[in-house]
Amino acid sequence: MRIRHLVTLALAAACAASVSGQKASSSDLSVCPGGPSAYLNRVVADLRVTSPFDFIQAVRTLEDRAKESLQLKKGDSFDANAYSAATAALSIYIRTRLPSSLISFRLVVVHGALEPNEGGPPDCSSGPVVVHYHVFTAVIPRTSANLSEIAQGLTERPSGNAGALSSSGLLKILPNVNYNQTRRVFAGLSLNQALPFKVFDHFEADPAISPDSTTGTVELTGSANPAKKYLNNVNWEFGTQYYDVPVDSASVTKGLLSAEAFASTKELASTITFRWGGEVAGGHVQDSTGDTANSSYGEVKLLAGLVAQHGNVTSAATYGLEVGRPISRPTGTFEKQIFDARFGWTYAPLPKYVTSNGKDTDDRLKYIGTPHHPLTIEAQVNAGVLSGSAAVPNVERFFGGNQAQPFIPGQPWDALEQPYIRSIPENRLGAASGTDVIGGNRFYSANLTIAKAIFGKALVPRDLADEDFINHLDSALKTAKGELSDAYYSKDPGVSGVSDAVGTLDDDLAALKKNIAALPPALMNQPNVKPIKSELNGFLIGARAGVALIKSGHASVTPNLINTQLPGLQGDLDRLSTVAKAAGDVGSATAIQQWKNLLNKELGSLKLRWGALDTKGAREKADTLAETDLAPAKTVLNRLLYTLNSYSVAPVAIFDVARLWPEQQGTRYAPGGGVRLSIVNANFTFGYAYNPTQANHEGAGAVFFKLDFTDLFR
Amino acid sequence: MAPNASPCEPFTIDLEVDPPSGDTQLDFTLEKICNNNGTVGWKLHFELDEKGSNGKLNPVVKLDIDVNDEDSNKAAATAKNGLDDNQRQQAAVTAQTANSVRTGDATQDDVNQQGAGVIPARDPNSPS
């Protein structure tokens, strides 16, 4: 599943935060009066669309293609109108190529800026000018949807909006070389290919081989995003798993054909998400120690857990149950149960303006572009027990070490099957050689990791610490919230009943349209009537549209009908009546007044009905729901703008404890340290852990490596 | 066009929202334009897509509206603070009018007229 991990990096890069740039020249403009019009006809020396994620080819490709689509080109004479129009052209180009899922909101902000006489003192009168476009993009689900899925689409799908960014349908192959003390040097590939099928839309494989070990999965995968409360997203896989890694001097091997499915809910009570999954698999197990060696084998695995995210704290608990049976031997079934609990806390202060929900002084600009120094504490407890038949295949028994082994290969969240201790190489804990039975039948392990970033570079460049930029983000969020609030508001039983009050109004407006059309041409063709007629038509169309909306359940437009359309219509009827009266057409003037009076009556009753409804309460409820919908979006944007680094380096301290039975060594420890390199939200941790109670077959310690990801929703 | 008191920087805010109904998609784009003659202009792009029987989104309304000079302050306030209640309601009325074009109850000119009312509909009491 290495590809998924890599894709999660792209999540931050291309999805949650894709493009931004160095705002190099807002100050440059200020030294040259007149704005862009002062640069007319000067040569465009260069045209740039920049991004802190330029190192990602998908983003770079998007920028280049967007640039090619512009009317203004390098070498052209500068034209302010073309320069301005390009901001909209870029925004449309980029937005329409971002993933769309009907559960998200997509935001693109494009700022243009000019740099006269690049690199030298500003030349306001002549010389070339460099045109910069700084783009900020966010694609964020309204509720807790599967962000990695969106990111995956963005970088992998071969056709449509996402695929245009990167793969263009080509097989993606990522070679890799790794080392650990058990497998030594092992090389592998991660392959990923989107498929034109509905059920399985991807092919994935990640084989890794060394002279004495082979691991990997080959799978067809698919996913869906129903976005329902109890079924937010689901993914499924069908393929093979192969595991052959030495256990000290022995070897254990397992090859399976498996079908897997995983699903999760939306956030339920108090930010808790429930997730579950399972696997049915059958194949062959083999080892070099005898006993159940070389047997057909079948297993069923079930996995269920909760994850809660509150502020900077994430906690998760998962329980797994496996029932397995060597089929070729009459040994009966065995059961394996595992428990995995995790806790993570990151102290990365947000602006007071954000934490006080806008009540405190706006200090957000101070946080943009300055390196962040988060403190992270991660804790993890794992336990497992085997029961049932004593003849458990060795490969299914417990071994420990510094390689995290997933309970189900391909599972979308972490739950370990084996004890994790970083001072002992992979599979060495529990590897008592020279006997037929190796590994343990129960274990626990606990791990603590503390990291504090000491230097780095902020993800969002300092040049974007600009009030306009912040205002434009605020503007988009407020509009998004307003639209969502309107939708909830219209559905509220407290106001939806207003639709009953516009039934006859609809008929009256239809009749009014006919009546106006039937007014004498001598009146309607008068020059002073033409503007009245045009405006009246606008209000009539607007009023009829408002009534149609209210009747179809959009009660939120009622104030527009009450305060704008109907009063405007009445005003124009008044003016028309006055003109008719002045022209001596008393009959028309009287009729028009009657129509106006009828409208007045309708307006009065609509106002009465609207005034009797609990509009304030309904709006408050709708605002709350809209706020809830947008909360993940705000969280991601806040993390992105005010806490994330493009890279940072942090010293790391670790301490592990593990115990495996029936091993004789007792409780094992792993004090150690290392360094963590974080690139956006991907954390690469390297270090060394000391093994104070080493057994004969163990060294004084072990090098460990871990790749994990900061959750942007936290 | 409004005079450009300080150096003009063009920008575009492009927001796409998917209402909870799951069958429509709204796109608002507000564009600030720095003209060759030193003046500042504003443009509102409004698009409504609806899910068809095939489950795909189809455009119902696509409008590009030049904001009148006298409304440039309201456009600037909108760029800073977002569409207010009145403006969103007028946008909804515009979309409904566009629907009426399909049934013959309105013309494209009617749609344009309603769309041109979105920025001016800003409540004077809304944040500026």
Helix content of chain B: 25-40%
Biggest interface goes to: A-B, 72 and 62 residues
Runs of chain B in which pLDDT lies below 50 for 5 or more consecutive residues are 1-5
Tally of individual helices of chain A: 16
Q: How many strands of chain A?
A: 21
| Radius of gyration computed on alpha carbons of chain B | 16 Å
Ends apart, CA distance between termini of chain B = 19 Å
Global morphology of chain B: globular
Oligomer: heterodimer
Structural class label of chain B: alpha+beta
List keywords for this structure.
heterodimer, A: 714 residues, alpha+beta, 18-stranded antiparallel beta sheet, 3-stranded mixed beta sheet, 21 strands, elongated, disordered N terminus, B: 128 residues, 4-stranded antiparallel beta sheet
Would you write up a description of this structure?
The complex is a heterodimer of chains A (about 725) and B (about 130). Chain A is an alpha+beta fold. Chain A contains 16 helices and 21 strands. Chain A has helices at about 1-15, 25-30, 55-70, 80-95, 145-155, 160-165, 350-355, 365, 465-490, 495, 505-515, 520-525, 530-550, 560-580, 585-610, 615-640, and strands spanning about 45-50, 105-115, 130-140, 170-180, 185-195, 200-205, 210, 215-225, 235-245, 250-265, 270-285, 295-310, 315-325, 335-345, 375-390, 440-450, 455-460, 645-660, 670-680, 680-690, 700-710. Chain A has an 18-stranded antiparallel sheet that branches. In chain A, strands 1-3-2 form a three-stranded mixed sheet, sandwiched between helices. In chain A, α13 (about 530-550) runs antiparallel to α14. With about 130 residues, chain B is α+β, with helices and mostly antiparallel strands.
